[in-house]
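Give me a protein, keeping tokens residue-aligned:
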Amino acid sequence: MKYVFEPEAQVSVPVVGTEQFFPVRRVYCVGRNYAAHAREMGFDPDREPPFFFCKPDNSVVVVPFGQTGEITYPLASGDYQHEIELVVAVGKGGANISVEQAEAHVFGYAVGLDMTRRDLQLAARDKGRPWELGKAFDESAPIAPIYRAADIGHPATGAIWVKVDGADRQRSDIDKLSWSVPEVIAHLSKYFTLQQGDLIYSGTPEGVGKVLAGQTMHGGIDGLGEILVHVN
């Protein structure tokens, strides 16, 4: 096959304890999936059905353990914010997946950051427009290596946190997800046929805030390691 130009390389994330890589297909994200974060964003935290948005696969920035990832402060924003998240890697596809069967579709879990141009997101939201300008931009989805569920099980509790230049910003527990990972998969699979290689960023707790050029984010989830990302 002859291409007009050379296509981008496949985006892939290393798998902990192996020499394998997880090839990324789509990146789905869950909005306002912690009640306290919903409140800080000015919304009623009542448990309404989850909603979703997407990022392109090439927004993913892989940050190996023990290294500092480098991302560039984005264009056209004066309010660039961090959101630390539990990331779910889908290993078995399907549609209309039941809550009871959802974990069978999970390959593994990782720590990730849903970087957000908050000013652009809020401007779009207030006009009833899509969130792409605020969410789906270059280098907006840093991720650490993936732990296989076969090795660690399916974490339902564990501290989730991020610091900026050593100062606490977000600190919670993944047991405070409004919608659990199995519930998220069940809801998402009503609208999309999930496939191997999909990533699901499951939502962020309260404490989101600005990151400036020159600052470093340091986050983690108990049992899933840590991530270090510097903003250029």
The helical segments are 35-40, 118-126, 132-135, 149-152, 181-188. The longest strand covers residues 106-113. Residues 156 and 217 are 24 Å apart (CA to CA).
